Each structure stands twice: as C-alpha cells, then as structure tokens.
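Sync notes, pocket subgroup
Present: LS, DG
LS reminded everyone that the earlier model was apo-only. Rerun requested with nicotinamide-adenine-dinucleotide included. Inputs:
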Amino acid sequence: IKAACADLADILAGMRRGVAFTGAGISTECGIPDFRSPGGLWTRNRPIDFESFRSNRQMRDEAWRRRFEMEAAFGGAQPGRGHKALARLLGEGRLAGIVTQNIDGLHQASGVPEEHLVELHGNSTYATCLDCGTRYELGWVRQRFEASGGTAPDCPDCEGPIKTATISFGQPMPAQAMTRAGTLTAACDVFLAIGSSLVVWPAAGFPVQAKRGGARLIIINREPTELDDIADLVIHADIGDVFEAVGQA
Ligand code: NAD
Ligand code: ZN
C-alpha cells in the first residue's frame, strides 16, 4: 500500500486535467452507508424504481418516509478526507472536474463549485414535480407530509407527483450531466475512480472511455471492482487513509 500511495503521489503531481469519479465509498467515513453495507438503509429497503414511484401513491408515501428517515440519520454529515483532498486538487488546477454518483451534496459542502461538479444521479436536497418541473424545497414537502399523517403531497399547480431531484432505477439519465461527464472524460489525462464498485451502468462506462482515450486509470476502493483488470494502478485500501498517506508522501 505504501508503494502504491507513492506511485499515486507521483501521478497526482504530474496530473494536468484529471477527472475524479466518485461513488458511495467516499462518503462512508462521513457516516453515510454505501449500497452494500450490512444493515445500511439501502440494504434494508429495496429501492423503489421510477415506474412504481410514478404510478403508485403508496410507493410515493414510502419513498418520502425513507427520505425523511435518512435526513434524521445523516442530515448533519460533513465532508471527509477524500472530499477535502479532491477539493484541494481542484483548487490547484490538477483536476478539471469531479463526476459523482452520490446524491449527498458533500462535494459541494467541501467547496467544489457547481461548474466543476457533475451529479450523474441527481441531488436529494430538493424536489421537483415530475409533470411540470416546478421546484419544491424539502421543508415544504415535509410540512405537508407530516400534517397529512404521512401522505406525499402532489403538485399544487398540476397535481403531478413530487419527487426528490435524484435519478431512480428505471429513470432516464440526465442528458446534460451525461454530456458534461463525457466531455470531461474525453479530455482527461488521469481518471481517478474512487469508492465505486463500478457496476452501475452507464456510470461505469466513463472509466472505460477514459482508458480508451489514452488516460491513465487509477482505482481506489477497498474491495476489488469490475474494472481492476484494465487499470494502471489499483489501491485496495480506505480512501481517507490513502489521501492522508499521499498528502504526506
Ligand atoms: P457501491 O455501494 O456500489 O460501492 C461502493 C464501494 O465503495 C464498495 O465497493 C465499497 O467496498 C467501497 N468503499 C466503501 N467505503 C470505503 C472506504 N472508506 N474506502 C474505500 N472503499 C470504500 O456504490 P456506488 O458504486 O457508488 O453505487 C451505489 C449507488 O447508490 C450510487 O449510484 C448512488 O447514487 C447511490 N448511493 C449514494 C450514496 C451517497 O450519496 N452517499 C450512498 C449510497 C448509495
Ligand atoms: Zn406540477
């Protein structure tokens, strides 16, 4: 691990337009469980797919119940060592951007400006009407949810369903975010895949695209990933520990 971190430090020192691609693993040290964590909210609750949410009122009530339960559990989470290290690399002009699968808002909280951040799976900090697109703040939804004894409110303008601005299974990927991620990836010299099992399509396509385009592919994850075989450097260790070691190298 020590030798691998020294290699990583060398690569980061020479990086000019890197892309960091992050998954749930970068936020576990902040207290937010990843998808596979035993006992985590995501393993206890089967995800509600987009069609069920849209067509079924009980599913909407359940989705919002979970959202507010998560807020109670992780609402106060702060950026971790990985988030801070990436914000620093961006500030130094080594990274061109951060592409994330996370919906927790912790890259923004670490000071990364929106123009350098691509959220592939959206954001859970506000909601929109699925029919007319009107934006609603979570406090507004919560007030109505609680006052009605746990019923998800519909849009007052058009009666459409209101959903957090996240992308669910079965929901189309956000076109603009996919385009921006593709542009960053096509131009990068180093692609850092951090804390993702790299199984969720189409997000896992970006590391492959980077490699084909001639970038160096670095994977940091405590478990093996689907793409370890094609990477130039693989570090199986804790993300926070790795960036701490690199900072000292
Ligand atoms: P994943 O759960 O499939 O993979 C996370 C990976 O991170 C795992 O392979 C795990 O071994 C590794 N990991 C966990 N903690 C680590 C640490 N401290 N150091 C090193 N490695 C660590 O996550 P994914 O690929 O990001 O996909 C899950 C999907 O669910 C995402 O698309 C995301 O939208 C959603 N999700 C988001 C959050 C969040 O916003 N924080 C959390 C859970 C799930
Ligand atoms: Zn509406």
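DG: The first helix runs from residue 2 to 14.
LS: Residues 1-32+78-121+173-249 form a domain with the Rossmann fold fold (CATH 3.40.50.1220).
Action: DG to write up.
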